[in-house]
Amino acid sequence: MPHHTSRYLAEGPRVGIRHFTYEDGAEFTARARESKDLHHPWLFPPDRVAAYTAYAGRLIEDPARAGFLVCEKDGGGIAGFININNIVEGGFQCGALGYGAFAHAAGRGLMREGLGLVVRHAFGPMRLHRLEINVQPGNAASIALARGCGFRLEGFSPGMIFLDGAWRDHQRWAITAEMTGPRTSG
After folding, report:
1. What is the pTM of this model?
2. pLDDT in tens, 168-183
3. What is the side-by-side strand order in the sheet with 78-88?
4. Whose CA, among 30, 60, 81, 122, lies 20 to 30 Å from 52?
């Protein structure tokens, strides 16, 4: 029987996750342009290929970052993205998550499935122990995603991140490997 190799790092019933590539620029930026109303004022993903190339390059080249595209298995289109930033190894083994759904995929549960896959990948092959999400208090969809994937609210940070011309308050959500069950080897 032939061995089938998936193009995904991890797969669920409806989505797979894979790393960013430079070749994804045209689709990613088209989806970002289509999703401006959904993203504003929370998020500003690159909507031009040159900006995407710089953005993807940081995720591809910087060992303190890992970028994942959430792709629909039926057709393979990009549904959203999840990045692990500020990865610290050693005794900390932690990273900070950022994510966004594209408008055509919003509200369909695809990002919840994708975030679950990224969490398992981070705690498995990446050997991280803790993931954090910082969310503006008014971003109900992002808070629901964090809560729905098992993250716990740990605190509130006034004026934490500079976004859209101002320092914005954020809630801090986190999950640890112990909260997700036995650790898988990677």
Report:
1. 0.91
2. 999 999 999 999 865 5
3. 10-11, 15-19, 66-72, 78-88, 94-101, 130-135, 166-176, 152-163
4. 122
